[in-house]
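Page 42, continued from yesterday. The earlier attempt failed because a stray header line got pasted into the input along with the sequence. Redoing it now with the clean sequence only.
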Amino acid sequence: MGFARACSVALVGVDGVVVEVQADLEPGVAAFTLVGLPDKTLVESRDRVRAAVVNSGAAWPQKKLTVGLSPASVPKSGAGFDLAVAAAVLGAAEVVDPGAIADLVLIGELGLDGRVRPVRGILPAVLAAAEAGYRQVVVPQQCAAEAALVPDVSVLGVRSLSQLIAVLTGGEVPEEEPGDPPGRPDPILAGLLVPGAGLGTGLARARPGREDGADFPDLADVAGQHTARRALEVAAAGGHHLFLSGPPGAGKTMLAERLPWLLPPLTRQDSVEVTAVHSVAGILAPGEPLVARAPYCAPHHSATMQSLVGGGTGIPRPGAVSLAHRGVLFLDEAAEFHSRALDALRQPLESGHVVIARAAGVVRLPARFLMVLAANPCPCGRHTLHGAGCECPPSVIRRYQARLSGPLLDRVDLRVEVEPVTRCDLLGRGGRGESTEVVADRVRQARERTAARLADTPWRLNCEVPGRELRTRWRAAPGALAPAERDLERGLLTARGLDRVLRVAWTVADLRGRDRPETPDVAVALELRTGIARGAMPLPEAGT
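This time it went through. Structure tokens are written below.
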């Protein structure tokens, strides 16, 4: 009788659980039994592992074979257990030393020819193994760079099962046969991508081919829209949610597409969090193991509630709010989204995460994003235009605007009416606006001031600071909140709205280099919140 064990990782959302793969050989009729709550994909690993072992030159044991996945109460899914199952079987058959694989974490899918294929979720799986105390992992060679992002873990990348056997037995590592001719797609990389997701989903991509040499969408390309540009700057500096309302063609989408490039690069910790989510979702591009820029996710208005917040059959998968973690979630034509899908965003907007409960388990996914809503004022989009001939009845306009519920809009800090572009602005006679680089530098400086003030606290941005702290620990200048308090008494602001005005006022003060918000800063915050002109001073241009 032979017995061996190896380790792998089961992913539940973006969290991992180390699974012990045990293989037991007993005399009897040759059979292969797999137990431990596997799903259909994992059950089929019996045939993949058997063929891979034989085609790798090793003998398949002709005995009664039982493979158990422990703990048995944790659901296991996916083909990432193939490599650990094969190693445990080979250890039980004494092809490899059972002691050499006992504390080894193996993750990877096996092809029938013995090649090791990459799987999704390598980074969160290796993170879970490291947290459990394991220091040696074996992954597909295509995923070795992603696994190496975890510190203090020794990573071995293999391309085939025969290479793993040679490493474990101390033999000569076989040379790989030449792959497909250059220029042909590598079928092995198909395991990294979810069909239909695409490579660019959730990632802000550079735009090549610009004449001025810039490789990203430039804010200077936006004609006019001075108020909306200021609101975009405030949103980037403080992480405040933004609602852009205006007629078609005014530039709402252009503004939203440039917001990710105003945000500073992700920190190391944020990059690992974002990369883990994208790896599980299957949208991490090959050759880019670490996401360094803020993500940008713009789902179509036909998206379901499950696609926005996460879900699906079996174990829930990340939705758009998680793909936009530490980045921007842009909902264009927001009034066309289903009301239930929009209202499902209210909880992650407050908490920064989403908890999805299904029969297969409960998953907690990160969802700390900056939301941008864009909508037309009416179905035809001409309601706010003078002499444009809007024929929408008032009742239709009210119903259209009511699709964005009050509780959802109450969580949006900045609300801006985007005006039609004038001929002067469109033809460039009014001069070009500031570039993305100039505004991004100002945003960086404001965030540095915020970080210095919030040092040794659990918060990082003004949008995260509770209102109680802003009213007691970090007070505004005396008398600065008088206009906001009057709006609260008149019912123009809710208690949550007053807290959000305070947060925006602190961001405006940081952009102006002030130690605390003063009356003009609160006036700007109120104007951006309510849309009512307060005679507020505009934010300073660069160099003023």
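Notes: The first strand starts at residue 2 and ends at 12.
Reminder to self: strip header lines before submitting.
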